[in-house]
Fold this protein.
Amino acid sequence: MTDSRGGSRVLRLVADDSEPGSPYPKASLWLRMGARVVDVAVAWGLYVVCGAAGMVVALLFLLLADGMLQGQSVGKRIFGVKVMHLPTRSAARHRDSTLRNAPLALVVLLGMMPAPLGNVAFVAGLFVIGGVEAWRVVRDPLGWRLGDTWAQTQVVDGKVVAGATVAARTPVAHQRAPGRIMSAAKVRRGRSLKKRKGQPCASR
């Protein structure tokens, strides 16, 4: 903000205390915690069952889980919460799920390092990254954690957004194609009519 005094301009910094816009209220922390416990249990089960590839399968599950069932992972479906993409107000997709779960997946990646360094890195990452994410969920007015900020998503009560589906987020280029084709046909038809009118009539 600028203010002119005596021919000179003074720059003022105005603090913006407005909260990020969202049409949805903050979801219950207990429901979110229960959903996360279920998802971690599923990931652990995949790790145990899949053998050598278990760690990779569990990592992929954690990254993509929130985009599997129209914004719901297995745990979120059980506890009735849903991840919404705020700019489009549509259910989160796999890309959104990957972005919002990237900080937690980093903890798993640290655990994939060779032992014993991997175990230490996993515990340290769980303490630091997990602690920061949990603190943000509790303190943020909308329950946003760092991953939600990256993906522009929010975990909401499923009853609030009942019936919401994945919306198209990019304009479809071919939607106007029929109109252009029809316009071109009309132009060609008009030109042919003008040519016919300009020709002299044949004598009988």
About this structure: Residues 117-139 form the longest helix (23 residues). Confidence is low (pLDDT under 50) at residues 10-19, 171-185.
